[in-house]
Amino acid sequence: MIDKPTKKRRLSFLTQIRRAFIFTQKYTDTVDKIKSKSKGPRGGSLYLCPICKILHPKSKIEVDHNPPVTPFDKYQYDLSEEEVINNIMYNDCQALCKDCHKTKSASDMILRRAAKKNK
Ligand SMILES: [Zn+2]
Question: Has residue 71 been placed in a domain?
Fold first, then answer.
């Protein structure tokens, strides 16, 4: 019998899975989808954010899960570890610049709150 994971353990588990995701082919393919032909001042590739339409270096690009890893009407702790892994590894995702990702995550939080209120 496995003990119910503590919040702390669950959080570190999630962080590790998200870190592992960065090393998957899916992550690379997602980021490569927005790779432009333009090069930065030091010759590095630039990536076109689909939201702000600005070219960014790879260091400013993040991958956003859509649908989100935790559905809007659920809490992280409602999901089993298997569901978390599946959602991180297999949900559709898109590459965005850090600023647009931050803005999208903030608006997701509003949707999340509304979804829970209506539950
Ligand atoms: Zn952007």
Answer: yes
Calculate how far, in angstroms, residue 107's C-alpha sits from the geometric centre of ligand 1: 15
pLDDT tens, 108-118? 999 888 887 87
42 CA from centroid of ligand 1 (Å): 21
**Segment (H or E) for 12:** helix 7-21
Could you tell me the distance, in angstroms and rounded to a whole number, from the CA of residue 24 to the centre of ligand 1? 23
Report how far residue 12's alpha carbon sits from residue 8's, in angstroms, rounded to the nearest whole number: 6
C-alpha pair distances (Å), 55 with each of 41, 46, 48, 51, 61 = 12, 6, 5, 11, 10
Residue at 2 is within a domain: no
In a domain, residue 1? The reply is no
Dist. CA 8 → ligand 1 center (Å): 32
Which residues are placed with Cβ below 5 angstroms of ligand 1, an ion? 49, 51-52, 97, 100
Domain with 112, as residue range(s), is 7-117
The structural domain count of the chain equals 1
User: The pTM is what?
Assistant: 0.84
